[in-house]
Known about the structure:
With about 300 residues, this protein is α+β, with helices and mostly antiparallel strands.
Amino acid sequence: MSISPRSKSGALEIPELDLAMTLNSGQAFHWTAMGEGWTGCIGETAVFLRQKGDKLEFRGIGEKDLCHYLALDHDLEAIRASCDHPVVREASLGCRGLRILRQPRWECLATFILSPMKQVAHIRQMSLALRARFGTPLSGTPIPAFPSASALAEATEQELRSCGLGFRAKGLLGTARLVASGEFDPEALSTLSTEEARDALCSLPGIGRKVANCILLFAYGRLEVVPVDVWIGRILGSFRGRRKATPAELERYGERVLGPYAGYVQQWLFHRARTGLLELPAKKSTKSKATARTATPSRRRIPRPVTG
DNA sequence: TACCAGGTGAACT
DNA sequence: AGTTCACATGGT
C-alpha cells in the first residue's frame, strides 16, 4: 500500500486507544483492515494506521491532524467517571479506548443520511460505493475521498440509487444541492448552540432528529447529545421500566441519566449491544441483588443484531 | 419466507 | 400532539 510515499509518518505513544473498536463502532464507515493495520482517509488525505499496544504508527498524515481526528484529547477516564449507572459502568469498562471521532463535517453529514433503517455493514457498503463512483482517488493510492457536495449534486437520483441507497437517494441529493449551492454551510454550524445547530440540520431533506444528533456527536463534538435509535431506545426503555415512551421522552431521559457526556455513554451502550455483549438486570426480580449478580440466568440479554 | 436494520416525512386521528 | 404508514435494500 503506497500512501503518500515521502509524506508525514511517525509513531505516537497513546495512553488509551482501541483503534479497531473505534473504527468499527458505527461512527465512520470506510476504514478497511489491512494486515495488522487500517487504511482509509481523513478528509482528503489517505492514511495508514497501525496500533501495537500503546504505540500508534501512522503514515500519510501529520501528528496534529491525526490527534484531532482521533480526539486523543478527550479525557476518557473523566468521561467514564461522569456516569455511575451500574450497567453503564460495565459497558464503559468493556469499551476502554473507544473514542468519539472528530469527523469532517460534510462527510459525516452525508454518510448519516444513508443510515436510516440500515445496518452498519450496509451503511459501509453504500458509503464505499459512493466513494468509488463519485469520489476522486487520492494521490498515488486506490483510496477515493468521500465525494464533495458538488460531485453528488451533479449526479442524478438514479445514479445514487445505483449505489444501493434506495429511498435515501432523494435526501442525499437534495442536501448535496443545498450544500453545493452555498445555501447551507456545514462549517457555519460550529458556532451555533447545539439546539440551533440541530434545528439547522433537521431542515435538510433526509435528516431528522436522530441523524442530526449523530452528526452533532461525531462531527461537531457535541458530546452531550443522545441519538435514539432502535438499540438505544431498547436500552433506555429497559432502564426506565416497562412503561412505553416516545423517542423524545427517551432522549430527554438519556440526557438526564447518562450525564454530561451522554453521547459517549450512548456510544458504549450501542457498541456493547450491537456486539451482543450488553446484559441488563432482569426488570423486576424477586431475588436479591446478590443472587441476581451471580446467577446469570436471571439476567436478560439484549437480542443480538443481524450481523453484517 | 418473514423479519430486521444507528428513521424520516407525510397523512392521518 | 400522538399514531400510522410508505419508503428500498440486503442479510439472516
